[in-house]
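Q: I'm writing a short explainer about 3'-5' exonuclease for a general audience and would like to include a description of its predicted shape. Could you first generate the structure from this sequence?
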Amino acid sequence: MNNDELATRRAQAIAEDRCFSKGRLRDEFRMKPAPGAEPVKWYKNTYGGRFAVYRIADCVPMREKRPLTSKQQLAGQRLSVLSRLNSTSGRMARQAYDWLSLAPLFLDTETTGLDNTAEALEIGLTDA
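A: Of course. Here's the predicted structure. Afterward I'll give you a sentence or two in plain language.
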């Protein structure tokens, strides 16, 4: 969302004197309650917790998000690769790769079908 659209949404909500929870203020308007702002009302959620609702006119804009540094971008890319490798399918792919690198002799396979969405259910292998 660009800054002009955000400013328009904020102005419209202030003109309508709307009230929102902290999470909604943060997510939709990039705002937070001003220091010392009192909640308009408290609500109880279905889990027994309580949350406050604030008037948007009593809130202040949050600072702009800084762009990610090159190290943060690299760390994000690294984490995405590591999460795929550590997932169940990633671990199974590694195990299959290790088995195939041993040049096995295939004895039997059980699959769910013959199309490109079929999955291998069971593979019988033996070493050559």
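A: For your explainer, you could say: The first strand starts at residue 19 and ends at 21.
Q: Perfect, that's easy to follow.
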